Amino acid sequence: MSSEQSNKMLVSLGYRGYRLLEKHSMSGAWVVIGAVAALGLTQHLKARYRTIIVLIYGSMLLIGLNFINIVAYVVVVIFVYFDGFRIFTGKVNKELMFNVCSFVAILISGLILVAAYWNNEFTLFMSTFFPGQLNVLFGLGDSEGRGFFNLIIEYINAYGSVLAKWPAVLILGDGFSGFGLPKGGDIGWIESMLRFGIPMFLLVTFGLWRLFRNGLKSVVQNQYSHSFSGDEIGQLKFALAGIMAIILNDFHYTVWGAKSIFPIFVCALAILGYQHDRRKAILTKS
Q1: What one-character-per-residue DSSP string does 9-77 give?
Q2: Nearest CA to 183 among 159, 160, 165?
Q3: Integer Cα distance of 222 and 217 in angstroms
Q4: What φ, ψ does residue 42 adopt, rounded to 5°?
Q5: 278 touches 217 (CB < 8 A)
Q6: What is the pTM of this model?
Q7: What distance in Å separates the CA atoms of residue 30 and residue 265, rounded to the nearest whole number?
Q8: Which member of 15, 19, 36, 192 lies 3.0 to 4.6 Å from 241 by CB, making a disulfide possible if both were Cys?
């Protein structure tokens, strides 16, 4: 990018970034976390008002063009805030289908409005950006002919090369050091596996799954027992959605270790742990 194109905010058309934080993926993750925090604080509002919040933050992500966080945002909003988790409990009803269909319809309508009324240059770039990202995701390839699966194979081979040089990394990991596999690449979960080592990576994955499952159980239970206040359910949904967004990012870019994200990640884990203990106490009393 030339000096004429650059600016102090490091924002430029086609540069895929807000660059307010370390990387565009961290900035995009912050927008998602801000959205789930706002939705968690507005549990008492009617759905139509909260939909406005969804659209505002979605517009920010759309302008920033960070594809993985756009995907994470859509999944998190449907799964947590439109009660999409009911699909996994086998309790799909008309209300759930209406909520999900409404969100998808709003999303498509917003894209059509942007395409119709926005600056032509921006619209043209978006019309090439999204198909290009989808081509990579579904294996059709980028400008170099590489699909997402090809990237995973490349990173697994690179991981194997690191293990061949430093076998102890398989068990101990390399932490946040700079040697071995360069960090900040396209396949975040392999980088996380390298940081932790295989045993710790599996342990952390299992622990995250248990905390997430227990938090989800608390939300489901509250629909029948109303054991938690509106604020507590807001906290639970914030923690569930925040962790889910951070983990989804790890399929592409690792953001959990960034100094701008890690404290929020730890706070979300603490909320889930606390609410799980409280749920156990409620069930014991009853």
Answers
A1: T---TTS----SSSSHHHHHHHHHHHHHHHHHHTTTS-HHHHHHHHHHHHHHHHHHT-HHHHHHHHHHI
A2: 159
A3: 8
A4: -115, 35
A5: no
A6: 0.77
A7: 11
A8: 36
